[in-house]
Amino acid sequence: MTRAQINRTVVESIVRRSFREIQRDPKRAIRNLVDLGLEAADGQFQKKFLDMAHGILKRENSPYYTLIQNTVQSVDEDRLMSFGMALGWNSLTQGAKRIRTEEAQRGHNIPWSMTLHMKAGPGDLSMEDYLRLAQEGTKLGIYSYFLFAEDVPSVQMALEISAANRNCAFCLLLPADLEVGMLSQAAIPLNMLLGVDSSAQDWEEQVRHLRDRRCPYLIYRTYSSKEDVEEIISGHWMERILPWAGIAALLIAQGDTGAADVSSVYSYVLDARIGQRYPTLALDFYRDNLYVDVCVSQDPCFLGVLPDGTITEYKQGREVPMGDSILSKPLAEQLRRFSKPGTNF
Fold it and tell me: Which of 239, 256, 292, 310 is 20 to 30 A off residue 12, Cα-Cα?
């Protein structure tokens, strides 16, 4: 057994014990876990996150105590462990170290996650293409994947991809027209977090099914118009979903959303999160994705893939195609375009 495997086993044991302690005395158990993490943390992201958590939890009535306690009580322990270790240990600890090493050797940036827009149509990427992408990604230290499924067949494909890569963390954002019955029948992998679209006609029923199965979930919405932005920054959307809120409330800019509107939404997200206004995490998909990447390896880097394989990057508040296809050459070669400041690769 390697040192990394031993460390992982120790961490998993401590976290499992903490789950039981949270049931008895949540505030004390959570503080003890954060303090222990600060003592053991050796990475920049870990220390930054735990320092922030330590400061937040000094507030005796913080709604994040409620969030953590509700999560531990309502989500299956094995699901929490599988997804949590894949994200926290494999991706943001061991994967982050690998990314920093690879970046130093290669002279270009490597994103901490990949965003895959999936559709099961003629000319779209196949299961084999996605499995290859995940295999190439993990070799570089990428263990986190965000999957935007556009139809039912791509939802099934996403579930199978997650099941085939259990050491990775997958967040599957379900399409608005998904039938609730599929959630009852589908085999949801332990290493997957599901996102429910609040614009779906039966989104509350979808959430109820996930709660009954003790699955972790978040609620998301896209925004593109001035009306969307106003509903978000006024707090009306959050108030509407709060009775059903899961681990996070995720906001995703789409279309031709202006940079000013994107900034307004992110200011609202930061104020809600840092000000501890709700018992759920307010997140902005693109801006927070880039924030994590900066914490991992200093420079922001985003890589997306459209259903047909076209590569995207994040520019001026939106995800835009770059003209090349992930099918044209291996991932490691595609990433050379993300040169680090001061390099010329």
Answer: 292
